[in-house]
Amino acid sequence: MTMTTLPIQVQLTETKKPKPDSETLEFGRVFTDHMFIADYTEGQGWHDHRIVPYAPLSLDPASIIFHYGQTVFEGLKAYSSEDGVIRLFRPEENMKRMNLSSDRLCMPQIDEELALSGLLQLIEIDKDWIPNAEGTSLYIRPFIISTEKFLGVAPSRSYRFMIILSPVGSYYKEGIHPIKIKVESDYVRAVSGGTGTAKTAGNYASALKAQQVADAQGYSQVLWLDGVERKYVEEVGSMNIFFKINGEIITPAVNGSILEGITRKSILELLRHWEFPVTERKVSMDEISSAYENGQLEEIFGTGTAAVISPVGELNWKGEKMVVNNMEIGALSKKIYDTLTGIQTGKVKDPFDWVIELNQNLVKQL
Amino acid sequence: MTMTTLPIQVQLTETKKPKPDSETLEFGRVFTDHMFIADYTEGQGWHDHRIVPYAPLSLDPASIIFHYGQTVFEGLKAYSSEDGVIRLFRPEENMKRMNLSSDRLCMPQIDEELALSGLLQLIEIDKDWIPNAEGTSLYIRPFIISTEKFLGVAPSRSYRFMIILSPVGSYYKEGIHPIKIKVESDYVRAVSGGTGTAKTAGNYASALKAQQVADAQGYSQVLWLDGVERKYVEEVGSMNIFFKINGEIITPAVNGSILEGITRKSILELLRHWEFPVTERKVSMDEISSAYENGQLEEIFGTGTAAVISPVGELNWKGEKMVVNNMEIGALSKKIYDTLTGIQTGKVKDPFDWVIELNQNLVKQL
C-alpha cells in the first residue's frame, strides 16, 4: 500500500494527560491526547484536515446530528507488540465501508487515502498511548457527524469527520468464556430497505431495548432474526454470527439488512484459505434447532472488532435452551481466534497482506 | 390544566439578537434568544432546570449522541393572534409522547408538568419572537440527547433535555397546493419491532435516501409501505396519511411501526365529533388503486405539525399515476384545515379544550 503525502496541519497539546494502567483498562472510556478533524462545507468539499489536542466540540443545539441522526462511524484497532511494531488490521476496509455507510445516509464521500494517512499520523503522535499488556489495544473510532444548524429534514450541508483513539483492555481478561444468547422474538434490528447494512447511529439506538430486556433475563446478547418472516438469523448483538453444523461453517449471507463485518469477511477468507467447507446463505432458527436435536450443532461464534471471536455457549429460543459444545469454546473457534489475533499482533505470519505496519508506512510518507 | 410552581433558574441574555422579518421567514433556521435546559445524571435524576441564553453546546467527541443516536425529540407550535393571546395546541400530548419515545430508547422519563412549565416560561421570555403574519408561528423543539462519554453500546448514564424555539414562516405562502407523492418500493421507514413509533433521530436519518431519490424524480414526498409485505400504507414523508374513499375517511391503524401523530389523533377526534364516518385499519395500495379505478378515491391528505393538512394531488405507484380531485384540495381536507388552524389561532371555538392560552396560565403559576 502506498500513501500520498497530504497536507494535514498538526497542533500538539501542551498538557499531556496521564496514561491509564494497562491492566485495569476498560473499553471506550479514556481517550488519547489528540484527535483528527476535517470539515466539509457544501460547494467546498472537505477542508482543514488537522490533528489537534483532544477537546470538546462546540455545536449549535439545532445541529442536525442532535435531531435526525445523520451520522456514520467505524471501529478498528491498533496493536503494539513485543517487536515494537505497531500494526493495524485492514484499515482501508473500514474507510471503504464508511463511504458505503455515508452513501446510504446521503453524506459526502471521504478521500479514503487521506483519511488513512491522517489516522496513521494521529497514531504516530499518540503511539505512547497504545497499551502493551496481553490482549490490550488502541481502539480507533472514525466518525462523521452532520453539523448544519437546521431543523428541516434534509441532508446536512456541512459535516465534521473525526478520529478519536481510546486505549482498551483485553476483551478476555479472565479467559474466553462462551456467552449465553437470547433469540429475540419481539424487537427487530433492521429490515431490508432500511439502514441495517450501514454503520450508523440509529441501528445501535434501536438495539438498546432488546439488549436491556435480555440482560435482565440473564443473557449477555440477543440474536436478531429477520424483520419480515422472523425466522432467519441475522446478527448477534452488534456482531456477525457463524455456526458450525456437521463439519461445515455456515453464516448468514449478506442480504440488505445485516452489517458486512470486516472480521466476518476475514474469517470467510481464512476458512477458504484453509479449504474448510464454508457457506454464506440463509439460516433459519428451525434449522439450528434441528441440528441441535440431531447432535450436529457443533460450534457457534459471534465475530467483530471488539472480541474478534465470541463463542456462544447457550442459545435460548422461545424457552428452548440449546447448550453448545458443553459451554466451552470449540476447537475451530479457538483456531480462528488464535490465527486472527496472531496476525493482528504479528505473532502469526500474514499470508493475506492484511496488516499495515505503522512505522514502515510512516517512513514512506513522512 | 393546572401547573405547579417549580424552581426553574432564569438567566437572561445581555445581547438580544435582531428579529427576522415575518414575511420572509423559512423553517427552522433562526432561533430565539433563550433556551430551556435540564440535565440528568444517573442516581440523581433530572436537575438544574434552567432558562439560559441560546448558545452552542460543548460536548466531548465520545458523547454517546454522536455515535449511537440515543435521542428523542418533539415538535409543536405556539401561535400569536390578533387578540394578543399566545396559544399552544395540546402541548401536554407532546410531553407524553416524548416519554413514550424515551421508553423505547431506554432513556429516563421527564416530569411532564415541569417540562411544560419550563416551556411556557421560555415562551413568555421570548414571546416577542412569535411572528404575527398570517400562517406564521413559533416552532418549538424539545429534545433529549445522551451525553455520557463512552463508546460502549449501552444506555447513557447522563442526558441533556433542551427546548429551543424558532420563528417559522407560513407553510402555505402561495396558497395550499396539493403535492405529488411517490409510493416507495425500495426503501422502508420502519418495521414492527423497530423504532417507528418513537420520535427518534434514526427514523429520520434512514428516510433521507428515499426522499432524495423521489426529489430527483419530481416528487415532493414518499409514501411509505409496511416493511414486511410491502403492500400496506404506513405514512407519507414524516406525516400520517388519510384517504377519503366513497364518503368515508380511512387512515392506517396504529400498528407498531407508524408514528402516532398528535394532528392525526386530533383529526380523528374532530371527525368523530362531526359524526363523519371514519375508520382506522390496514389500507393496502391495491385497495387505493381499485378505489381510484372505480372513481371512489375522493381525497388524500397528510397530517402533521408543520403543514397541519397537506393535500395529495398525485400518487405514483410503480408508474401508475393516480390524480386525486383534479390536483385540488378536497372540500373535507379544506374544512379540517380551516377548523384545526382556526382552533390553534383562536379564530374558531375550541370545544375540546385542546388549546392552552399562555398568558392565562402564566398568571396562574408565576
TrEMBL record, chains A, B:
Organism from which the protein derives: Filibacter tadaridae
UniProt pathway annotation: Amino-acid biosynthesis; L-leucine biosynthesis; L-leucine from 3-methyl-2-oxobutanoate: step 4/4; Amino-acid biosynthesis; L-isoleucine biosynthesis; L-isoleucine from 2-oxobutanoate: step 4/4; Amino-acid biosynthesis; L-valine biosynthesis; L-valine from pyruvate: step 4/4
Listed name of the protein: Branched-chain-amino-acid aminotransferase
GO BP: any one term: isoleucine biosynthetic process
Entry similarity comment: Belongs to the class-IV pyridoxal-phosphate-dependent aminotransferase family.
EC number: 2.6.1.42
Keyword Transferase (UniProt): yes
UniProt cross-references to InterPro entries, sorted A to Z: Aminotrans_IV, Aminotrans_IV_CS, Aminotransferase-like, B_amino_transII, BCAT-like_C, BCAT-like_N, BCAT_family
A Pfam family reported for this protein in Swiss-Prot or TrEMBL: Aminotran_4
SUPFAM superfamilies: D-aminoacid aminotransferase-like PLP-dependent enzymes
Major enzyme class: transferase
Entry cofactors: pyridoxal 5'-phosphate
One Gene Ontology term of the molecular function aspect: L-valine-2-oxoglutarate transaminase activity
List of residues that carry N6-(pyridoxal phosphate)lysine: 199
Catalysed reactions listed for this entry: L-isoleucine + 2-oxoglutarate = (S)-3-methyl-2-oxopentanoate + L-glutamate; L-leucine + 2-oxoglutarate = 4-methyl-2-oxopentanoate + L-glutamate; L-valine + 2-oxoglutarate = 3-methyl-2-oxobutanoate + L-glutamate
Alphabetical keyword list: Amino-acid biosynthesis, Aminotransferase, Branched-chain amino acid biosynthesis, Pyridoxal phosphate, Transferase
